[in-house]
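3.2 Worked example (two chains)
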Amino acid sequence: MDPEVAAALDRAARTALAHADRLAAVPPGAWPDGGLLPVSGASGRAAALQMRVSQVDAPTDLGYQRYVPSLSVVLVGRKRSIVGDDDQEWGREHFLITPVDLPVVAGVTEVEDRGFVAVVWRLDPVVVGEVVASMSRSAAPLVEPPRLGTWTPALADAFARLVGLLDTPEDVPVLFPLVSREVVLRLLQTEQAPRILAAHDNESVVAKATALLIDRLDEPWSMDRLASTLLTSASTLFTRFKQTTGMSPAQYLKRARLGEARRRMVVLGETAARAATAVGYRSASHFSRDYREAYGRPPAEDAAGAREAFAAVG
């Protein structure tokens, strides 16, 4: 790792450790990461920065996470993230951008003496739009960037200063708008720029598509119907969707349905049949097959085990 990047991330880690929400137990099916940004329950300082700082003491099982548009950073330890067909283990050498709502399966794989420490910072679409509009850029080919981003010294320094505002809340009103825009600018100067730009081009057709699928999970979507609803072509939607999320719309819908079904079974106590129907599955055998492929166990068995594990910890 570049020495400048390492030094900046070391600074960020020291600050994050002082302000982390310590998570003794992780509710199965509801990993408190990208899907639970600081609307409530997070510390006031982190909430003011649209940030969640979490510390976990031990490795965790894989669990469903629904990430809102965000920048996710591991500062201490390592985690595994499965986005569509992309399955990777990563630590502070990379970062993860989710420019639209994204269903992810993830878990902590390695902890250090300080545990596992991660920061999730919400990407404000207004700020991203302002920065994109102010940049001069030529048309770029629609290429799918790597799922994980690689730090540049400028990005790592800006991110460390963003996290550093946790120590100086009196500076937040003045510096946060400036530093947040700099972080977005530096992100747009990395190989992740096509993913961010795709989410904001054509009036955010990808963001509209993901919102529509999430809001209406139980409906029988096809590629043509989705494109027609959004008043775009199927080929354009498919290309931009794949570039932005790393998945096809069909893969995205499947992952979102399975994650919501697991949440319903584990958190709400619904039966597998009821949860499957609620998210749009018409065949119990189809649901069971997809679920086992995603989570390694049949639905009812997995949900019961997750509830027991969480009850034992609590």
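3.2.1 Second chain
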Amino acid sequence: MQGVDPDSPDAFMHIFLNLMALLPWAALFWWSVVFVVVGAVLGWWRGRLVEGIVWAVVLGPLGWIVVLGRSRPKPRPEPPPLPRRR
């Protein structure tokens, strides 16, 4: 509240910006990048790359648990090969 007049119309914005200036934005950014990369690796390992990235973006490291808890996708059944032409 230092330097902010509580009666001014933009007092909320000044207080909000002062609070946002206290956050370590660089560390938050790099931790988020690490969470997404690990989520992508876990998703690739489980056969769900995009799902691993999405869960890591939405939930961070808790998304890893979601990806690891889901079963691997079943492979699509392939039809038998066609007979050769004579």
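3.3 Remarks
The two ends are 88 Å apart (CA to CA).
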